[in-house]
Amino acid sequence: MVSQPDVPEPAHAELDSMLSRKFGREVANYFSGSPLNRVSFLRTNHEFITKALTHPSTSFLLFNNLAPLVKDPANLAYAKHEDLRELIGENPFEKSEEELIKEYNSSVTLPLVLFLGLDERKKEGFEHGIYKGQPFFAVDVTPKGTVEKQASAVVESMKGKGLEFMEGRMHMSLNAPEAAVYAQARALLDWNARNPFCGGCGQPTLSINAGMKRTCPPTDYASLPNAQGATTTEATPRPRADCATRKGISNLCFPRTDPTVIMAVVSHDAKRVLLGRSKRFPPHWYSTLAGFCEPAESVEEAVRREVWEESGVHLGRVVIHSTQPWPYPANLMIGAIGQALPDGEKIHLEHDPELEDAKWVGVDEIKEALRVGTSGLGEDAGPEYKEGGLRLPPQTAIANQLLRAVVGGFLESGEVSKI
Amino acid sequence: MVSQPDVPEPAHAELDSMLSRKFGREVANYFSGSPLNRVSFLRTNHEFITKALTHPSTSFLLFNNLAPLVKDPANLAYAKHEDLRELIGENPFEKSEEELIKEYNSSVTLPLVLFLGLDERKKEGFEHGIYKGQPFFAVDVTPKGTVEKQASAVVESMKGKGLEFMEGRMHMSLNAPEAAVYAQARALLDWNARNPFCGGCGQPTLSINAGMKRTCPPTDYASLPNAQGATTTEATPRPRADCATRKGISNLCFPRTDPTVIMAVVSHDAKRVLLGRSKRFPPHWYSTLAGFCEPAESVEEAVRREVWEESGVHLGRVVIHSTQPWPYPANLMIGAIGQALPDGEKIHLEHDPELEDAKWVGVDEIKEALRVGTSGLGEDAGPEYKEGGLRLPPQTAIANQLLRAVVGGFLESGEVSKI
User: What is the pTM of this model?
Assistant: First the structure.
């Protein structure tokens, strides 16, 4: 069993500020707390991105079918520019985006090269005007399309160095700063891979802005309208059908993030907490309730709706506690604390029968479970756990942090802070 | 000029609960506070949705090219089932979703019929088991495709009754409860209209789940792969290309909501507030800073990144205040309060030159502007406004509510509540 990774250091805790005096330290959740400055405004800067890509200090995080290259379960591994030259060329950012769009050929595979940001802790080396730090990129080395052979060579070369592409659905073993870097890369590679076609017109799209945008080009040099199976190339580009995303700014061209709510619900007397379990959980395992925000719903409304739909409990006041990026594939978990109405505590599981069980649990039992009964879903609880006791998610899950907050002072003093 | 609408009543304020004693009343922002229970788990219930559609109490909100049918700028108008029979048929939910998918024909236009929820304030009349209330639907009556004639007839018939489809980019004049109903319908109609094709495979998709899902059918009775211009129908359905969205659950099939951050930033000494203006604002108009969350970024990190990119200011602690749905087209505005680091208050506009200006403004000036200088973007300020004074967004904007919160006690006592 891999040891549980740390959660990130609370960023900018600023204990002497008015906000932190009132609200306590900021809780930084796992997958947040990246050391990289995304300098998002430089992604379209031709000179910057070219210099960053080819700088000797630059590190490349590699993914094969969304599995990241690692040294071991706690540490990512990185490639250098020379390891990738055969796959991505000397400089995939050599041409301007206007040129790339004009020359678009849907039958040619362009491996995704994603700019992640600058690690400003390492100010020696790369600089561009006032911006300094070690550049980080991610590259999709999945063997596919017209670069299958070159990508396979990169994969084999990395394996030859004793590195591996870490398989598995979720990677919660990485150290906290690298988990955040991995999360950013995974979310964006996944979004690009899931959206090869335009939802507005059905035609294949082209990745631009160093991986942060997909555009629907007006012409195509490939001879077939659909990239699937198309291999020949025309001498002049074929005009494509009109597309609404080419007029003004369309959200379809930008990465998608799905807001979800996850909430620790306390009883009206603030002595118990509502927990639920789904059928796929191991025995005795419970967690906080959660669900997707719906269109045109505030977070507070989504919290009340989901709690009522899943458990029958009616909530009053809802307060948002902290948030956690969740790159499987693209969720933003918005963590909240809600309190039941005096006459709204009755549990009813039959509205939306998603949960196998829901129950009110006393504070002492939750405190004990946070001490001895936490683990990842597929892992064993700690050595002090006694069979039959309550089991809860690990510290890397926001559910755990929300429960810590409510039993760590709030239920007694009203203080919402981390124990 | 239309009078400024109310903001919604704070829902579930529960002033006697521990959460509300500590955090104050919950702020309900405009476009939230819907009176409808979405009963989301009943959207796929064949019997329920059929009964709800055809019940005599049921109200239909109509949209023509996203313009809602209204009595006047403050009040929506509704149609009845008999007004729509020629367009949507007696019951578009007559067949099961399995049947609709099997019979899918991309050359036939099916007008979107969207289930919004039950108005539980009206418990007399419609009921389905324990669920009672007046059913609300929205219908897209935009004249297009194979139902152009029938849709035009509905549009003309409504105009004949003296009603109108309210044009314009934003509708902030509606009364608060109806604004929330409108927002839900608009967000979903827009998502369906923007996504006629599958981003995973490029083939046209079918709306199911009473408007809350689009699925990629495995076969098509139309003779052409692309709905554009396709009119003939095959005797047997044509198998379509494989699609990743048909395996397991894909977020591409569900409505998209883009999380955005909007933040009132206070100085380290808590005596000033950071405001910015874009070129498109009228003279003297400022607002809080805002921007989109990026993939794998917490809300707190997005707040710090956006403030630094747009203004150069470095923030410490960030606290989330309240949220607002923003259906233009699909944003969830997450409102926060952040405090500048002691040495981080210097303004620098050149990182991401989105703002024309940013400045620190004293509390008294903001209080005065909230009293006399608020208006919608295209509207005049109130009668007490003196030319040259600071102008700010109206109460219906979360920017206004965040500013009210920080000058309404927080900057003096640390209390984050609404003035």
Answer: 0.95
